[in-house]
């Protein structure tokens, strides 16, 4: 596979990852990222200008998705903590009601 094909495959998968992330389909995004990894690792340093532009877009997307994933994880963690606190409060209420 030549470098142009590697770049095109990496870019196609990057677009699919962005679409999955936009739908909050993190499992699909992870699968696609796993499929993209060998292509990203196969990129060579010496590239023509048009290829470098696509590689920079891929890098920017990777950074953007990582930020969105951290934000989504923080939101889910906060929701989980609130739910657990609510469950504990309900349990304490039921225990107190038994006495």
Highlighted features:
0% strand, Flagellar protein FliT, 99 residues, 3 helices, mainly alpha
Give a description of the structure.
- The protein is mainly α and 99 residues long.
- The chain has one domain.
- It is 87% helix and 0% strand.
- The chain has three helices and no strands.
- The protein has helices at residues 3-22, 26-41, 49-98.
- α1 (3-22) packs antiparallel against α2 and α1 runs parallel beside α3.
- It is rod-shaped and about 75 Å long.
- The termini are far apart.
- The relative contact order is 0.11.
- The model has no long low-confidence stretch (mean pLDDT 93).
Distance between the termini: 73 Å
Low-confidence stretches: none
Chain-averaged pLDDT: 93
Large-scale geometry: rod-shaped
Radius of gyration: 21 Å
SSE string: HHH
Number of helices, where a helix is a run of at least 4 consecutive DSSP H or I residues: 3
* DSSP helix fraction: over 70%
Which range does the strand content fall in?
Answer: under 5%
Class by alpha and beta content: mainly alpha
* Whole-number tally of structural domains: 1
DSSP strand count: 0
Largest sheet: none
Protein name: Flagellar protein FliT
Organism: Caballeronia glebae
What's the SSE blueprint?
Layout lengths: L2 H20 L3 H16 L7 H50 L1
Helix pairs in contact: 1-2, 1-3
Organism: Caballeronia glebae
Protein name: Flagellar protein FliT
Question: What's this entry about, in short?
Answer:
This protein has 99 residues and is mainly alpha-helical. It is 87% helix and 0% strand. It has one domain (3-73).
